[in-house]
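Q: A reviewer asked whether we had any structural model of the full assembly, not just the individual parts. We don't, so I'm hoping you can provide one. Inputs are below.
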Amino acid sequence: MKPVAHSGLRPKAICFLLACCALIIASFASLNLQFAAFFDSGTLRKMGLFIAELTQPNWSGAFWLKLLPAALETLAMSALGTLIAFVLGLALAIPASKRSLARFSLVRSSARWVLSALRSVPELMWAALLLISAGLGPMSGTLALALHTTGVLGRMFAEALENAPKDNEFALSVRGVSRSKIFFFVQVPQIAPQLVSYTLYRWENNIRAATVLGIVGAGGLGQMLSYYLSLFKMSETSSILLVMIGLVLLVDMLSAKIRRVLA
Amino acid sequence: MKIDLERVSVRHPPTLSRRGEVLSDVSLAVASGEKIAIIGPSGAGKTSLLHVLACAQQPSEGRLLLNDHDPWTLSNAKLKDLRGQLFLAPQIAPLVPRQRVVTSVLAGRLPQLSLLQSVRNLIYPTNLQAVHDALARFDLAEKLFERVDRLSGGERQRVGLARVMISSAQLLLIDEPLSALDPQRGDQALASLCQMAHDRQATLIATLHHVEMALKFFPRIIGLAQGNVQFDLPVAQVTPALLTELYRNQTEVDHAFDAVQTAGDTIARPAFAPACR
Amino acid sequence: MTSLIPTSAPDFSDIASQHLRDPAWSRRLTGAIVALLILWPMFEWTEFKIWTLWGPESLKQTGNFLASFFPPKLSNDFLIQVAHETWRTVAMATVGITLAIVLAVPFAVIAVRVLSLSALTGRMQFLPSAVREIVRAILIILRSVPELIWALIFVRVVGLGPTSGVLAIALTYAGMLGKVYAEILESGDPSNSQALMRNGAGRLQTLFYALLPQNADELTSYTIYRWECAIRSSAVLGFVGAGGLGQMMDASLKMFNGSEVLTILIVFLLLVWCSDLVSAWLRKFLS
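A: Here is a predicted structure for the entire assembly that you could use as a starting point for your response.
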């Protein structure tokens, strides 16, 4: 009998690929994409001019006087926001971690739900929402970072608390030591390396987020960038971009240093 | 603290690897200030018995009385006070690896400290002298500010014992205090423990694999095998025949490494407690 | 019986008892003071006067705004509009990721050391090595610029609309996907690919016959995860004019229309939650 040839791909994979193709085609079709406009000669010339100006950043003293405070503002936003998130995240991680054997706990589910909601709203969206009450300026940015990062850190801390070995807790609870004392004496010291590591990792992420939050008016370098870009002042824009990259590198370096010191 | 066990049994749902009944029909009367050693082969239920006495495991049958009160009928507040007066020292010292020895030892005082005092101790340890003296009894005074994960297994076990010393517990339940110690240190540790119990008039109950040490230091020996009390005698009346009978089914008697084995295999876990290892 | 271990340590207690101090204390105190010295200016620089949130003016404003949130706007026209924008957000993310894959795959394939012919017989030669380093550097640059900034620049150049958003996502995610694809391809066992190349197979043939099948699961899993992130990104890009839910929310916020904002926010959270479920299910389905 002749062997029957069939495709090497599993039927599952074929299904998946077909579904993907359908989604992709539908997406391309429904959006009014104007790549033509992007690549026409006028636009390309404009882009060429921009790029040329971008290679000549403005490093004048007067501009530095504006750059430096904005950079410090952005740095402070990211650090303070992360710090607040550390405290709030740890506070929420306590109810959110599995401490009793009950399969369902209202307290635990609510805490997890709050963290999930905080986490799902991106930083920029939080900033846009907070502008109404906190006003334009870096405080909105700080709060926006703090709220979003609380959701992220809270979930990570809760998992760390759940996965920590329980023997030390048991030894103390047998003696009737209250849960709050156990928390400070055993649970926190045990997960301390993870607490620090996750927080520093989020700080690295938050400095990148902080640089752009200003675009909606939350202060820092982003606000400057948005302003100069709207005026098509590319050389100032280029300086701002370079300072942003510099900040990101600085935080990456500081974070690595802190990790080494505390290890 | 006075202890009475009345026909206590502890049962767990049996699995492929272990029997259901961990302790069956155990009765015991201990006067305040007595020193008892519990010996027996692996899987005899020694650790479970200690857990029952520590109110960490509720008996499936029978009754436990501590100072003539049944702890399982007490209110939460009274039970908490009672727990503060006992001390269960597991075989593997429950120390947080990155903590310093001084903080780990001070944790023995937690039932007596308020929350504020406890947190203050984390920031700056108080009563350093007492911690120093407790460690000195076990030859560890110079490790006062060392990190726990930089100590050897034997040193960690001794830190665990120093924690017992600094607590003011009236019932000391020690699980295998010698498992990681060499004979010299083992001698010293048991001597210190017995001295401490004597000074405080506390009841001391220890499970031991080293039969000679048990016979050397403890005036009363209980032999446990397969969840049953085989004998409960003053040390003078314990004969080699009794011991052979006790360890009949176990090929290695008094082997230092048995201590590591007992913690995992056939000893059933109390419902809310983690495995001993 | 003599022993090598002293039965008791030298007695330091007399000497030490008067001088027992915690050696870590001075370090901790210094650290705390330094931290406070850094913390104070941070509050200054971020103008973090959180008590102003409770000032009467601000409270009234916040109160009014929050009150305007309820009830969420549920009129048919509005909901249809929201559904439309939701689809546009998903479509933007899908197109963006597709373009990102198209860019990332060649970069990753070039950057991967496993396919190096010169490395088969010893160390990689200079030119192939240099080419790989350049490609990796390009990927790093693409990844480091936040997509919002790309979008901002493109909007100025091309104008408002989904094209800018799609291109921004394509560039940034090309960097991310390229780096991770390269890492995944390199992390597997190289012996299959090496065997094929040693026996004369071309590099692209090795790619299709060994590298891709070996790592298909991980590659797909990561791509699905990034698609889910792209949906979030595309919503955010709407705030600079790239269309979709973000732009809708921006417009409603500027008009202080709380009920619209609440509806859009709820729909967005549902979208995130659904895409999370779909992504998790797909990854399980395919593994």
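A: Points you may want to mention in the reply: Chain C has a mean pLDDT of 83. The CA atoms of residues 31 and 84 of chain C lie 54 Å apart.
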